[in-house]
Amino acid sequence: MTDSVKLNAKVSRRSLLKGAAGLAGLAAGSGAITGFPYVKSAEPKVLRYLGTGVNEGDLIGQQCLKDTGIKIEYISATTDDVTKRVITQPNSFDVLDTEYFSLKKLVPSGNILGLEAKKIKEFNNITPVFTKGQLPNGKKIGDQGTAPWKVLYLEGANSKNFSKTATDYVTLIPTVYNADTLGIRPDLIKRPISSWAELLNPEFKGKASILNIPSIGIMDAAMVIEATGQHKYADKGNMTKEEIDLTMKILTEAKKAGQFRAFWKDFNESVNLMASGETVIQSMWSPAVTKVRSMGIPCTFQPLKEGYRSWASGFCVSKAATGPKLEWAYEFVNWFLSGWAGGYLNRQGYYSAVLSTAKANMSEDEWGYWMEGKAAKGDIKAPDGSLLEKAGAVRDGGSYDDRMGNVACWNAVMDENDYMVRKWNEFIAA
Amino acid sequence: MTQSRTSLIAWLQAGPMMLVFVAFFLLPLIFVVIVSAWDYNEYEMLPAFSFRGYTDTFEGCIVQLPELCTILKTYAKTVKLCFLTWLITLTLGFTIAYFLAFHIKSKTWQILLSLLCTIPFWTSNVIRMIAWIPLLGRNGLINQGLIDLGLIKVPMEWLLFSEFSVVLAFVHLFTFFMVVPIFNSMIRIDHKLIEAAYDAGASGFQTLVNIIIPLAKPGIVIGSIFVITIVMGDFVTIGVMGGQQIASAGKIIETRLNALQFPAAAADAVILLGITIVIISMLTRLVDIRKEL
Q1: Which residues constitute the domain of residue B131?
Q2: What's B285's domain CATH number?
Q3: What total number of domains does chain B contain?
Q4: Is the CB of A206 less than 8 angstroms away from the CB of B157?
Q5: In whole angstroms, how far apart are CA A281 and each of A56, A272, B43, B229?
Q6: Which is deepest, A55, A90, A373, B97, by most CB within 10 Å?
Q7: Residue A9 is nearest to which of B130, B226, B284, comparing CB atoms?
Q8: Is the peptide bond before B66 cis (omega within 30 degrees of 0)?
């Protein structure tokens, strides 16, 4: 008895947290049920927006309110926590901002509504990257992993199955995507880097880093292993058990040899590692590279000959959203694709799903720099007005066609995900 | 009659706490134990009896012998970090508490100086941990300073993202949890006892070992429980300070949760709980806290 009493200090803290999270969810969820009776003229248009922060921003929220009268309430969480919340508390949000690879978990849970394609005004103008897996100029791009076009359509409005052919029901309306590669410190490496293989090059012993999100980290590792010629994967985004074993074995050997300085999990960690010079080569995200550069430290989002690992996100709607909420959700998605937000995202180095409307919201010079790989004629500024690049600069990796055209694989959830997660824990413990 | 009334009042007084305890501690704990024996798939828990969470966790533990399997390696590492942290915080905490209790005569100064011990808590956990990088990093203050002084030529890399930095961060954070209960026990020690020991010819060391340590035992045990339970379940500090390269029991649970494998995470939580209970009960063998308080 005394023993269990003494344990309180530890366990009650954890269970309290859980209780608090539950209550918060209850409070958020009850909004839909206990809200005031619906009066069309009086009720403010409010959408609860659950997401990871990529598409978020006060400026987007303000502009949306101005243009449509819809007030966006952001609920921000990490990729993993967003997924957890969709599965466990589907009533706690209206609009969901998530990535295509999460759909393999979200759609079978039945908590996501199939959106009607014909209600999305710009649906036919969405870049063929999403609908057909090719660039606007017709070039086919890599389809390894959970490529968006594999999970874009549902068989029916309430189906839990993905459709292989185009239907009227869409799982997730794309908004933003990018091609990821390694970030490097050119001032410390002092020589050209052109292959993923360099991540495990002993030359950078103790100065390399990899992403500690298992499903993405293992794909970066696969890019490296393929680049060194040790194995050719049929699909890097869907490995067999043997392939997972091989990948983790090579990673574990590198870890034991002291190749990695640290692993990182969130945006700020990756910025800190790179900016402080703790690492000189690592998996990275585009805005993190921009952040390091804005601190006056040289950092390159290095294009590599094996290609990019791509990701894409967009909007889902909760099955719990009905009536006016659902109409506002469509209105919001349509507003998002109508150009202002697209221009805003393009200016941060991401890509907008509807290129034509984004182009109309950017200056010719901005479009040339971000999308066409041209040298900037004037200074390039971030959406908040701060200076990003001086006149004459050219974007790392060049044009849209050069970057998206060289995508090798997409962020993925593997069939052997459970096994992979166990192996990843083993790798961390090694 | 009177007796049943007093007992009713006693129950009423304990009632609110008991309700909170049952609702927020006992019930969730029971759920965790139940869920740990469920099955799961990619996105949901399946309420069917399965020990998969446990068997997966101990995967390879027999096959790989004599080499340790993942879970044993992880626990060996966690317990090692926990032991080091405990040893250092205890030594530091005891010394600081001793200084506060016996060398500072004024109550005001005692309070002021104990408040100084809370300085590490004035900023958020994350900021505090990120702040170690400019100090301990490859190009950090310490390495640059030593290089400038000509004492070393190459930066010492083990200062950061190592077991050293993990233990350092733990000590920095949790020494306070040792100081407070030990200090609390020490100020209750009757000064006449120490005077008597002195009069009887005991040396300073003998007084410490025979009088102060035994009487400060409850404080030591309570402080130890704080430190051990927090460190055993930690995954944030070990993650950030260990560069995410050091495994911990908490980290395993987190990875499982993030992969939506709730039953497996619950199974790992039950295992962690069991091991922590064993450690704590060994500690409480040393002293009956309820009697001492």
Answers
A1: 67-292
A2: 1.10.3720.10
A3: 1
A4: yes
A5: 28, 13, 34, 37
A6: B97
A7: B226
A8: yes
- Going residue by residue through chain A, which has 430 residues, state the pLDDT in tens, using 9 for 90 and above: 333 333 333 444 444 444 444 444 444 444 444 444 444 445 789 999 999 876 677 889 999 999 999 999 999 888 888 998 999 899 999 999 999 999 988 999 889 999 999 999 999 999 999 999 999 999 999 999 999 999 999 998 888 899 988 999 999 999 999 999 999 999 999 999 999 999 999 999 999 999 988 889 999 999 999 999 999 999 999 999 999 999 999 999 999 999 999 998 888 889 999 999 999 999 998 888 988 988 889 999 999 999 999 999 999 999 999 899 999 999 999 999 999 999 998 988 899 999 999 999 999 999 999 999 999 999 998 877 888 888 999 999 999 999 999 999 999 999 998 899 889 888 888 7
**Inside any domain, residue B58:** no
Look at domain A42-178+311-358 and name its CATH class: alpha beta
Chain B positions touching A269 (Cβ under 8 A) are: 240
**Sequence letter at residue A1:** M
| pTM of this structure | 0.81
Q: Do A2 and B290 touch (CB under 8 A)?
A: yes
With helix as H, strand as E and coil as C, how does B40-84 read? ECCCCEEEEECCHHHHHHCCCCCCCCCCCCHHHHHHHHHHHHHHH
Separation CA A371–CA A275 (nearest Å): 27
Residue A424 to residue B255, Cβ atoms within 8 A: yes
Q: Measured between beta carbons, which residues in chain B are less than 8 angstroms from residue A268?
A: 130
Q: Which fold has domain A182-306+399-429?
A: D-Maltodextrin-Binding Protein; domain 2 (3.40.190)
Gap between the Cα atoms of B268 and B78, Å rounded: 14
CB contact under 8 A, A277 and B137: yes
Please list the alpha-helical segments (H only) found in A40-141: 58-68, 79-88, 103-106, 128-131
Compute the half-sphere exposure of residue A296: CA atoms within 13 Å on the CB side of its CA. Answer: 0
Query: Do the beta carbons of residue A183 and residue A274 sit within 8 Å?
Result: yes
Interface test with B, best of A15, A26, A264, A270 (most B CBs within 10 A): A15
B60 in a domain, yes or no?
Answer: no
Domain limits, chain A: 42-178+311-358, 182-306+399-429
Complex ipTM above 0.85?
A: no
Instruction: Say how far apart CA B76 and CA B58 lie, in whole Å.
Output: 14
| Cα gap A93→A318, rounded to integer Å | 7
CA closest to B23 among chain A residues:
A19
CA pair distance B237, B231, nearest whole angstrom? 9
**Long-range contact list for A36-43, CB < 8 A, 24+ apart?**
A38/A323, A38/A324, A40/A324, A43/A324
Within 13 A of A368's CA, how many CA atoms are on the CB side?
A: 14
> Looking at the domain assignment, is residue B59 inside a domain?
no
According to DSSP, residue A16 is labeled H
Residue A357, exposed/middle/buried by CB under 10 A (0-12, 13-18, 19+)?
A: buried
Q: How far apart are CA B177 and CA B228, in angstroms?
A: 11
Q: Does B155 touch chain A (CB under 8 A)?
A: no
A17 touches chain B (CB under 8 A): no
In a domain? residue B238: yes
Which residue in A167, A199, A166 sits closest to A182, CA to CA?
Answer: A199
The DSSP annotation for A313-351 comes to: EEEEEETT--HHHHHHHHHHHHHHHTSHHHHHHHTTT-E
Answer yes or no: are the C-beta atoms of B94 and B220 closer than 8 Å. Answer: yes
